[in-house]
Amino acid sequence: MNEFSAEAMGLVIRELRQTQKPPMTQDELAKRAEYGKGGSVSISRIESGLISPGTSRLDAIALALGQTPEQLKQRARTRTSALADQRGTRPARLRDQVAETKMRHAKINDKVAQRAKITQEVGERFNSVHDEVWDEFFVKFVELAQGISGAPEPDRPNEKQLERTNQTPAAIHVRAMSAGIATAIRGAAAGSVAGAAAGGAAAYGAFSAAAMFGSASTGAAISSLTGVAATNATLALLGGGTLAAGGAGMAGGTLLLTGMVAAPAAALAAAGFYILRQRRSKKEEERLRAEVQTAEKALAQSQHGFNVMIDVLERATRIMEYVSVHGTHALVKWQKNLPPEPRTWETLGNDGQLRYKQFLTVAGCLLSVSNINISVLLTAEPAPLREMEKAIDEMLTYADTTTQTLV
Q1: Residues 106 and 85 occupy one common structural domain
Q2: d(CA 211, CA 223)
Q3: Is there a single domain that holds both residue 77 and residue 161?
Q4: Tens digit of each residue's pLDDT (9 = 90 or more) over 65-102
Q5: Which of 50, 66, 89 is the last residue of a domain?
Q6: Residue 221's beta-bridge partner residues?
Q7: Residue 215: its pLDDT value, please?
Q8: First CA to last CA across the chain, in angstroms?
Q9: What does the pLDDT read at residue 235?
Q10: How confident is the model at residue 367 (pLDDT cuts 50, 70, 90)?
Q11: Which domain, by its residues, includes 67?
């Protein structure tokens, strides 16, 4: 967990931005930190204390402000302590205590509403790009692949082999997904349920199930490989979550998140009556203050998970946007160069066969990214959350690098 609050980091970044000579706008900071289109909105949310930038984003912001990341963090730690001291000072008169508690109550509700709004916006953007890349790249590749007979089956992860190569969980996962997609493609050609590639979530689930629950060359289930870098916990995080329960990975999981981010507000439900009262006793004020403190604590504890969740959704969206543009273009070019039907593996030639394998890997990356179980991030304890963040970062980095290398 961070040793500084999102509010403190936001204040530090805002002050440093405004004290630049000449003062830097949010849009200028976003551009210098390479946020891309609409980056000023992200900077605004950071400065408002709604989210904290991830490691790579913080590095870029620090550089843009002429600071090192550690200098930014130290400033934020100092500010966090100052804010805590300020809030620890309690007004002497009951009337002033009531006013302060009302203000804190309103601030919590506003932050919860803002979190829900951010989650909805980022989730809808992800879902839109996800659907686009599914239709324009994934489904079209599957349809073309179904018409090629004799394509070799990719090697599934082998535990002994993995121990020798020390492949990362992300690479293992993508290999498993790619092999599962190839299996589902062959099943589609034979008329199985996975054949309706354009059938939406059901077909999506069929491809993922073939990848996650198929057998490795050792005979063990892909999702239960042990003794190698791909631990049960990591594989479960990367693919055994919402999708395995019948959803659609992150695409389905984001539908649940708007409600989940509002959870801290539940602690204030019983307090509403007292907020509305013009006068209340010291006992009533103590009760409300305690409930407000509980909600503030819940918000603070869930901040890191919320930060990670938003960062994951935004990074996943960028990966899919890249494939939607460049992968789709490469796929159309490959299609134009395919030999006439009926097509066999041999008739593709070396270049066509290589492209097929590359597209299969890209499809595996897309499915792996889509399958990340993000809903667990909001409720995870600090230590497991750090492990989850590390595993997810590895997957996103691997998928990003791999897709850009191949298409």
Answers
A1: no
A2: 9
A3: no
A4: 999 999 999 999 999 999 887 776 777 788 788 888 88
A5: 89
A6: 215
A7: 40
A8: 36
A9: 42
A10: confident
A11: 1-89
The domain boundary, picked from 24, 55, 89, lies at 89
pLDDT for position 38? 80
CA atoms of 354 and 137, how far apart (whole Å): 17
pLDDT at 375 exceeding the cut of 80: no
Question: Rounded CA gap, 241 and 376, in Å?
Answer: 9
CATH code of the domain in which 45 resides: 1.10.260.40
Structure tokens at 201: 């979530």
> Taking the complete model, does pTM exceed 0.85, yes or no?
no
Mean pLDDT in residue range 248-273: 52
Indicate the pLDDT class of residue 210, thresholds 50, 70 and 90.
Answer: low
Q: Which 3-state string (H, E, C) describes the chain? A: CCCCCHHHHHHHHHHHHHCCCCCCCHHHHHHHCCCCCCHHHHHHHHHCCCCCCCHHHHHHHHHHCCCCHHHHHHHHHHHHHHHHHHHHCCCCCHHHHHHHHHHHHHHHHHHHHHHHHHHHHHHHHHHHHHHHHHHHHHHHHHHHHHCEECCCCCCCCCHHHHHHHCCCHHHHHHHHHHHHHHHHHHHHHCCCHHHCCCCCHHHHHHHHHHHHCCECCCCCEHHHCCCCCCCHHHHHHHHCCCCCCCCCHHHHHHHHHHHHCCHHHHHHHHHHHHHHCCCCCHHHHHHHHHHHHHHHHHHHHHHHHHHHHHHHHHHHHHHHHHHHHHHHHHHHHHHHCCCCCCEECHHHHHHHHHHHHHHHHHHHHHHHHHCCCHHHHHCCCHHHHHHHHHHHHHHHHHHHHHHHHHC
Same domain, 124 and 181: yes
